[in-house]
Amino acid sequence: MTTQYPGHVPDGVAYTGGQYTALKDLMVSILDLGYTQGAATYDVAHVINNRFFRLDWHLERFYQSSAGLDLAIPVTPSELTDILSQCVRRAELSNALVWMGVMQGIPATGNPRDYEACATRFYAYAKPYYGISNADASAGVSLQVSTVQRIPPDSVDPHLKNHHWLDLRRAQIEARRQGYDTTVLIDRQGNIAEGPGFSVCAVRNGTVWSADETALGSVTVRAIRLIADELGIPFIHSSLPQDEFRESDEVFIASTSGGITPVISVDTRPLPQDGFGPVSNRLVRAYWEKHSDEEWTTPVQ
Amino acid sequence: MTTQYPGHVPDGVAYTGGQYTALKDLMVSILDLGYTQGAATYDVAHVINNRFFRLDWHLERFYQSSAGLDLAIPVTPSELTDILSQCVRRAELSNALVWMGVMQGIPATGNPRDYEACATRFYAYAKPYYGISNADASAGVSLQVSTVQRIPPDSVDPHLKNHHWLDLRRAQIEARRQGYDTTVLIDRQGNIAEGPGFSVCAVRNGTVWSADETALGSVTVRAIRLIADELGIPFIHSSLPQDEFRESDEVFIASTSGGITPVISVDTRPLPQDGFGPVSNRLVRAYWEKHSDEEWTTPVQ
What we know:
Two copies of one chain form a homodimer. By secondary structure, chain A is of the alpha+beta class.
């Protein structure tokens, strides 16, 4: 059924079941357990100037998520790379966001608990790169520390990228209503966890901090850590209580769409700098330089 | 895109955007936040012999879930009742499962955190009634107490029916691999929570127990509680530690698809009865009798 779908549907090219199509026509059955049970995983890479950025790390995470969630990907990493390249080329994009996903499918028995009776559905697509642009990024965002707790690892392993966003969404809606741009959730112990679709980093006494690496698997944070090592900037993964986080010297958020964005206030406290602080500035400059580094990128075929 | 969709797609009739269509053609865009973020809610009622069972309670819960998740339903309860009836009649079903759902939609800005920039999508459909049939039910199921914790209320309110099933699914997969039919998850304190798509009740010393009513909102358990009151059988909602649960005299699972199903073993312990125990037996008989009671049902128009 070609339902009228309101909202911004970008031009883009999608792949599934051996065929390429317009992104607007890539659909999920209402009966797919990928929809009804969030039984799905995905990853999102980006292309800048016809080069994928750390596609190796995205593929590694995608296959790990898939294995951890018992969702078989029916293509090899090499085939997947070809499919992603095809999507980008067919969409005629030099800067793109590139999705890859796999969902459970519909059980052959009709019983929604018969996961073994499903054939998984793999898909991929490319759409124009968006996110907080470099220009907007320097303006910075206000961030609220939410009272909402991130879904804990005892329930769903946060390393396995998934579509369970109701906690993130609730925190985001509450933050917006209270006048903040965005939010970061806490874990059960009240430590800083992650935001809706991004990781949070803080700079404290010259050291870059990010949430315990057991909790998350951000590709952008992985890049930042490696860059920090190269620049001789100390970097630690640890648990950070929200009270200590509020006293940070610099804060930024990190995600594939947007890269690194400065935070200009945490709750009601303005941060010392309006925009990037001195440490963040060095990291963000190097981060974008890496986008033309052959060791960090893969050309679109 | 009319993708080849493997799996069992039942005959059924769906409604969305003012139109009726075959169930197999009801699709969700890959960009809908209902898919990518599980930003959706739903409810499932059932029809036996052309009568909805406790449709009032299902509608009440559906509108509560929708309000709690900030997902506007664009039809009134009376319009919704008409739509559900239409789906059942057009599908020519006298016994049916009837879904109603609403998903976030695609943001007009393209920014996946702009929930205010979305027009929600409402849908409904009817398909043949299935589930653990009365015949199969009497055979009973083996149940494992899982080590997986149900997503806690601090993250996602379990009263608000949602598509976050990865915890339930993980427990179900693990139980099957270990030779059990099904599973029940625990809460953070190790108390019995709920199973994948059903509630669990136990009978202990003549009293029917179900998980604390703050934790769940099962329509079938609500029916059982009312029936227990009528029959003079004591019923309590409370926290039940898993060790006490394992020592129950009778255990059954309760859900819209299937009604009441006996549990014949908990972990490695067989229950005293093979099939329904004496208390469960009284409840299940009265439960099915209520399906022709005018006060408990609504005719399909």
